[in-house]
């Protein structure tokens, strides 16, 4: 098969045709265990019957209606999402970057209404990732993303170090519109943000008159074993952004607001043609109902703990740390080995994984992955790690 679309991702020469549960097959009929789920998107795996049914039933009713009107399924999904998360209002978009753009615009408007033109700065964390649009790239706290070819970048962004108490003493003032926290840094290396620090940082930001926002594009929708990661971190953001797993594979994003942020946006402030697309909302309803179930979340936690413990117990000499929460898992390795080489060998052996930061192999399996698939995937990972040990 000739590749004619932009190969922006250094993609592998594997062409997938279908999946079931957490298993994928390529054009040659070769089987793979999916520890990636399309970067945490296919949170209910592949060909999950209730999801397929909801999407096909919705396709027969209406696929798109525009935001001039309301759709019944859009209203149902909004109500469900707000009831589960405890937020008051929301905006639907189509991706994580777009959800974050909405949050950034909201923060800027909040700042202007509560301090005037000078209160515009958005503070994010070093090593964070917030998306690929110009504003979200600028918000991203990793210099390697701020390449000259896309300059100039928008103004009004600053970073502080996660888990650093000195930084929060001086970071916030009457120019700060918002503190924007990526709850567990996915792209940056599966780096955990400490709950006490997050609460202290949020308090310092609020004391300075800013709002607090959480980027849960990767950590939200059950990924970390609670419906939102900010639920366990406890810093109670006024704004949260969601995407990736929100509609089980159908493109969608959302930005939810409450408290001081609830009434900042008025009609006309922010829109998007595809936003609240009924097909995506129908899928989102199935995901929200399934993932918010406490037994489901409990299993996400237990499966994640099992995976982390299993890898630790192998005692592979070059594995420095196995960390994460729920089914967002990072295996940190020492600098003698490039995690991308492990990723490639895993794929050859039939296991989809990705990397994070400069030294982490990242797993984001479907949240409903079976025990059998977990063990099959782990045995491939073990074999590959042992192979690198022997080198
Ligand atoms: C993936 C991701 C984004 C960007 O989402 P897109 O849907 O690719 O635009 C933003 N923030 C975080 C934390 C992410 O993991």
**Order of helices and strands, N to C?**
EEEHHHEHEHEHEEEHEHEEHHEEHEEEH
CATH superfamily of the largest domain: Type I PLP-dependent aspartate aminotransferase-like (Major domain)
Strands side by side in the biggest sheet: 4-12-11-10-7-5-6
CATH class of the largest domain: Alpha Beta
What portion of the residues fall into strands of 2 or more residues? 15-25%
Helix content: 25-40%
Mean pLDDT: 95
CATH-scheme architecture of the largest domain:
3-Layer(aba) Sandwich
The largest pleated sheet is described as:
7 strands, mixed
Distance between the termini: 34 Å
- Judged by helices, strands and strand pairing, the structural class is alpha/beta
Shape: globular
Q: Return the CATH topology of the largest domain.
A: Aspartate Aminotransferase, domain 2
Uncertain residue segments: none
The count of strands amounts to: 17
Structure, described:
- This protein has 391 residues and is α/β, with parallel strands linked by helices.
- It has 2 domains: 16-34 and 294-390, Aspartate Aminotransferase, domain 1, CATH 3.90.1150; 50-291, Aspartate Aminotransferase, domain 2.
- Helices cover 37% and strands 19% of the residues.
- The protein contains 12 helices and 17 strands.
- Strands 4-12-11-10-7-5-6 form a 7-stranded mixed β-sheet. It has a 4-stranded mixed β-sheet with strand order 1-2-3-15. It has a 4-stranded antiparallel β-sheet with strand order 13-14-17-16.
- Helix 2 runs antiparallel to helix 9 (278-291), helix 3 (72-85) runs parallel beside helix 9 (278-291) and helix 10 runs parallel beside helix 12.
- The longest helix has 20 residues, at 294-313.
- The two termini are 34 Å apart.
- 49% of the residues are buried.
- The model has no long low-confidence stretch (mean pLDDT 95).
- Residues 95-97, 100, 129-131, 182, 186-187, 215, 217-218, 243-244 line the site of pyridoxal-5'-phosphate.
């Amino acid at each position: 098969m000739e590749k004619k679309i932009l190969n922006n991702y250094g993609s592998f020469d594997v062409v997938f045709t279908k999946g079931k549960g957490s298993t994928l097959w390529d054009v040659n009929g070769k089987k793979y265990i999916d520890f990636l789920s399309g970067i945490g998107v296919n949170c209910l795996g592949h060909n999950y019957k209730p999801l397929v049914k909801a999407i096909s039933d919705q396709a027969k009713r209406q696929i798109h209606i525009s935001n001039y009107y309301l759709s019944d399924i859009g209203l149902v999904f909004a109500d469900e999402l707000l009831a589960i998360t405890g937020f008051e209002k929301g905006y639907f978009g189509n991706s994580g970057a777009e959800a974050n753009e909405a949050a950034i615009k909201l923060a800027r408007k909040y700042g202007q209404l509560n301090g005037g033109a000078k209160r515009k700065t958005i503070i994010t964390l070093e090593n964070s990732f917030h998306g690929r649009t110009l504003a979200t790239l600028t918000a991203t706290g990793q210099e390697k993303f701020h390449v000259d070819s896309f300059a100039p970048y928008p103004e009004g962004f600053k970073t502080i170090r996660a888990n650093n108490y000195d930084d929060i003493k001086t970071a916030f003032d009457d120019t700060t519109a918002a503190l924007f926290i990526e709850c567990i840094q996915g792209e940056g290396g599966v780096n955990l943000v400490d709950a006490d620090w997050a609460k202290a940082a949020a308090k310092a930001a609020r004391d300075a008159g800013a709002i607090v926002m959480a980027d849960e594009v990767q950590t939200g929708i059950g990924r970390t074993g609670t419906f939102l990661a900010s639920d366990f971190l406890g810093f109670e953001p006024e704004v949260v952004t969601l995407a990736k797993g929100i509609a089980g594979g159908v493109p969608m994003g959302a930005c939810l607001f409450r408290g001081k942020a609830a009434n900042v946006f008025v009609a006309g402030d922010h829109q998007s043609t595809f936003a609240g697309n009924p097909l995506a909302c129908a899928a989102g309803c199935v995901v929200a109902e399934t993932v918010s179930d406490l037994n489901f979340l409990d299993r996400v936690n237990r499966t994640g703990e099992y995976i982390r413990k299993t890898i630790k117990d192998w005692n592979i000499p070059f594995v420095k740390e196995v960390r994460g929460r729920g089914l967002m898992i990072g295996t940190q390795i020492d600098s003698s080995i490039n995690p991308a080489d492990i990723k490639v060998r895993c794929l050859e052996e039939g296991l989809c994984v990705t990397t994070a930061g400069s030294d982490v192999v990242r797993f984001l399996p479907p949240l409903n992955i079976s025990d059998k698939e977990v063990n099959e995937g782990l045995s491939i990972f073990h074999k590959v790690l042992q192979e690198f040990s022997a080198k």
